[in-house]
Amino acid sequence: MTFDAVANDPAFDGARKLLEVHQFRLAGIPTWITIALFRELAGKVVFETSHRIKTPMQKYHLPWDDDRYVRLEVPPEVARYRTQTPCDGKLSGGSTPYREGTQDEKAAALERAVAAFRDSYNEAVNTGKRPHDGWLEPNTYFSLRYSQ
What are the backbone dihedrals phi and psi of residue 66, each rounded to the nearest 5 degrees, phi first? Predict the structure, then answer.
């Protein structure tokens, strides 16, 4: 059976294809963070993260994302704390849209996922906060499970 066959079968409510899995740790925090990139039926690349970061410096703390929540329009300073979202097709340093179906699209999604961790972490560390395992909260909706 092919992915297209599953995607077009009326017995299924949705389908997506796993494209890549990446893992990293933040300095001073022993927990592995997993980022999974998927391609949805509509063709967009989306990401999910195994955790979300919540440092003492963050002003916003979002409820866990679900399909209804991901589609809400929120300010950019809040959106960066999401644990899953479609990629808007822009790399963080510029405004060049990706070409759908290319490596650029996956790179933009990965950059967006990593940026939330990197930016929040750096903001806290640069103000003198010491990294702490409590800064990471597991995403109970994460599709993939890996041992830590």
Answer: -140, 180
Cα 43 from Cα 133, distance rounded (Å):
35
CA angle, residues 10, 14, 18, in degrees to nearest 5: 130
Cα 69 to chain center, whole Å? Answer: 14
DSSP, residue by residue, the chain: --HHHHHH-TT-S--EEEEEEEEE--TT----EEEEEEEETTS-EEEEESEEE--TT-S--PPPP-HHHHTS---HHHHTT-SEEE--SB-TT--PBPPTTSHHHHHHHHHHHHHHHHHHHHHHHHTTPPP-GGGEEE-TT-S-----
pTM of the model: 0.71
Which residue in 49, 31, 35 sits closest to 134, CA to CA? 31
Span 60-69, pLDDT tens digits: 555 444 443 4
Region 54-58: what's the mean pLDDT?
84
Residue 29 Cα to chain centre, angstroms: 19
Cα–Cα distance for residue pair 5/2, rounded to 1 Å: 5
